[in-house]
Each structure stands twice: as structure tokens, then as C-alpha cells.
Amino acid sequence: MSIQTTFHAGLLDAAQPVPEGLTDGEGRPAGRRYSVYRNNVAVSLREALTTGFPVTRKLIGEQNFDHVAGLYLRAHPPSDPRLMLYGAGFPNFLASLSALSHIGYLADVARLELAIRHSYHAADGNPIDGNALAHLGPDQLMALRLSLAPSARVLRSPWPVLSIWQFTQDASVGKPKAGSQDVLITRPAFDPQPQLLPTGGATFISALATMPLGEAAEAALRSAPDFDPSATLGLLLAGRALEMPSC
Amino acid sequence: MFDTTMRRLPNGPGVGYKPQHYSALIADPAPVTWLEIHAENYMGDGGRPLAQLRALSERFPISVHGVGLSIGGEGPLDPDHLARLKTLCDWLNPASFSEHLAWSTHDSAFLNDLLPLPYTDATLSRICAHIDQVQETLGREMLLENPSSYLAFSESTWAEPDFLREIARRTGCGLLLDVNNVFVSATNLGFRPQDYTAAFPLDQVGEIHLGGHDEDLDDHGAPLLIDSHGREVADPVWSLLDITLMASGPRPVLIEWDTDVPDWPTLSAEAVRAHRALQKVLA
Q1: Which domain of life is it from (chain B) (predicted)?
Q2: In the CATH hierarchy, which top-level class contains the domain A123-247?
Q3: Tens of pLDDT along B71-88?
Q4: Phi, psi dihedrals of residue B103, rounded to the nearest 5°
Q5: pLDDT for B226-275, tens place per residue?
Q6: What is the fold, at CATH topology level, of the domain defined by B13-282?
Q7: What is the residue extent of each domain of chain B?
Q8: Which of A1, A11, A24 would you mutate first to test chain B, the one with the most B CBs within 10 A?
Q9: Are B66 and B36 in contact (CB under 8 A)?
Q10: Who among A25, A36, A151 is closest to B189 (CB)?
Q11: What is the ipTM of this complex?
Q12: Where exactly are the structural domains of chain A?
């Protein structure tokens, strides 16, 4: 086996012996000098997960988080040097751990944090202005095809995921009430803004990708008779989350 | 072969850029004259990081410092990562691009640390081939940085300064001399740091790095220094900088502070100290 294969194997598995052929300055076995690299790898990758999932960490506590982060980084080290993307599989990993199964909403909170991070780094795109649609007549508006800006995200959850995310950071917002929540993340300037979507909003937004605005509104109304397209359209425009298709 | 008209880093103090210092840098950067960024932090698709970098690049020469290319890796360079690096360099046209004499990726796992290499003829050939590929792809000369060492390889047949000199001779790359790394390695492996810098090809050095280190002990109770970039530069490292600059003449000198990042006054005080060290050899 090559030296990098052995060196690598021991970095993520403390049960592996220190590779042979490594010495201190006087030719003695390297011993715990090798552990400096073990420590650097584990600490820096755990730090990347800590930075990426602060609310998840707060929900389960620092010790528990450090433990599951250690499990994750050993099972799934990054496949890409862009650590800003690291942890895409972390929510599913959390969902797979039986020790955390009593916190059913945990994976969705992690998914929300991941979506916010991806929104932060997404391309700027060419979002339309809030009043860009003001001059259109009703028929023109209904026939309009729009697409989502690269920084816009929708997360649908059977849990009150946004309320939990907010309450974990600021208890003064009040305790979350049971029930599902759909969350829209927009990036009006540089900081992603998660906000609650009304019933039907998520259906409307996903329909916009494939059909004109009027048909998307009808699809949403079929799933939610009280749906108000103008309210969700307003959220999207204010969040600079809509683009004209390039074709 | 390379674009020689691109701007160069000034022979003044620079700092590793941290977003929390953006406003301070725009208001009054003195004595800082240039900035260094970690390439991988600017490989997103948009948003604040790239907008800030664009604004900073209009005011400062920028050094792009890669930490993820794994130039010393046994496998081929990651073509996707190299392409992202080219995209960044083409967009930014930085005054300098540098990477490390180290590896960090194995079997597609990125380990986020600068891992050590045995200094053998086989390693030399592989690294030179990788550097050729990087310089051809980017269309610019790169600098290669000496590592901090915590251990040695019994199979090594080259001394590190000779190894770096030979890489520079074969590939035409420049070198980045991290004098804190020299001090850390010298303490950890038991050689005199000034012997290392005296043997180093200083005429190839395009940039000098300084950073703080932590102190630990090895199995035998001997000092083991860790390159942490989390505190002030140690006094003996400042002395080593003086000795180096006296031999090399003025160079761009960077303060690296990457963990427990301090407020701007603390960081700029370190840059002031680097500025004074440079004044001594400019006078």
C-alpha cells in the first residue's frame, strides 16, 4: 500500500496504528506527532459542520453535536475542497441515527440551515424588480412565464420547522405550535431570508417552473381553495426571487 | 509563456482577508497594502463573498492562496477543482497565486489539512508534473509554500530547501517562504531555523508568510509546535524574519490569522510590526 493510503486510513480511524516510516527529528517513531494530523482533520471538519449547522447544534447541545459530527466526518469526509458545501448529507445522516429519532424535526431544521447556506452562495442571477410587473394587464400577467432566482429555495416540512428555527435562536418569539410549515428562502440582498409560505404557496412556486403564472395559480387553488396568488407573488418579488426566463 | 504584465504584490505588509474586517479595510487599511484570500472560500457561485472580493480587488492587489489542490497527492489533480481555480483567477486576475508543498485529498476524500510528504525523487517528479499542469492551465506562474512539519519520513533523501530549489528550477515556479513554518519545523525536527533560511533559494521567494503557533509536547517531553494561525506571531519568528529580509531584501510579507480571528486593531498591529521589519531593509 502507498504511504498516502496508510497515512489517510489512520487519520480517520484512531484504532489504526501510526503508519511506519514516520519519525521525529532523531529517528525515533513519530508516535503522537502523527496525532497532530489526526486532530487537525477531525477538528477542522467538525468546525465546518459547526459553522454550517449552528441551530441544529443548539437543539441537541454541543457535546451531542460534536459526537454526531465526529461520526459523520469519519463516514462521509468531504468529496470537494469547497467546505462551504460540506454537510449536504448531514440532515439525512441525522435522520438515520436511532439515538436522535425522538427529535423528529431535527433533520428538517438541518435541511433549513443547509438551504439557507446554499442560498447565500448561489449565483446572483437577474431578478426582476418588485414593480416590473405593475404595467402588465391581467391577461398579460396570467400568461407570463417566470422562473425562480438561483438563490430562492422552498422547503416543505411536516413540522413547524421555521418556528423551531426561530425559537431556538430567540425564545421571545414564542413556542412553536404543532403543524406543518412550508418555508420560502429568498435573498433580497446578500442575507437569505426564510419566511413562512401560506397554504398553496409551495405548490404555486413549483408550478411556476413549468407553466404560466395563471395556470400555476389555478394549480395552487385546486390544492388550497383559499390561496391568494398575489400574496405569494408579492413575497417572491420583494425577495428578488423571480427572473424572466432567458429564452 | 506566462502573462508578465500582471500586477505584482507590493513589498509591503499584507493580511489574510477575513469578512469581519471588510469595513475597517475600506475605511483605513494602513499599513496594509495588499490582501490574501483562500481560493476555496471564493468558489461559490455568487452572493456576498464574490461581491466583497470584487470591491476589494478594485482597491488592493490580491493574492489567491489555494489550500485544496493537493499538489503532493499520489493521484492526479482534481480536474474540476483546477477548472474552478482557473475560473477564479481569470475573473480576478490576482497579483499572485500560491499553493502548498503538501497533499490533502486521497481517493476523492478531502481531508482539509496540509499533509506531509517524503522528499524523494519519486515525489519530486510527481510534484513537478502537477505544478507544470497548474501553471499551464492557469497560464500564470505559481508560488509553492514550505510546510510546517510535525514528523519526518525515514525514506526522505532530500533536505527540504534543496527539494524546493529543485522544484523551482524544474518548473519555473516561485516559492513562498513561511518563516513561522520554518521555525515550527526547526523546533519539531531539531535543526537551526537560520540554517534553513540560509540554504533556501531566497531569489525565488515571491512572498513571505508569518503566523502564530501553539506549543505542545511530544511523547518524549520535547517541544512540539503546532501551526495554528490563532495568535500573535512569536518573537523568535520576528527575529527570523529580520534575518531573512536582510538576506533576501524586501518582499511582500503576510500576516496569517485564521482561527480565533482578532479585531482589526490587533491584526493591524501585527501588520505594523511587519511594516517596521520591512522599513529596516528598505532604509
Answers
A1: Bacteria
A2: alpha beta
A3: 999 999 999 999 999 999
A4: -130, 155
A5: 999 999 999 999 999 999 999 999 999 999 999 999 999 999 999 999 99
A6: TIM Barrel (3.20.20)
A7: 13-282
A8: A24
A9: no
A10: A25
A11: 0.94
A12: 1-103, 123-247
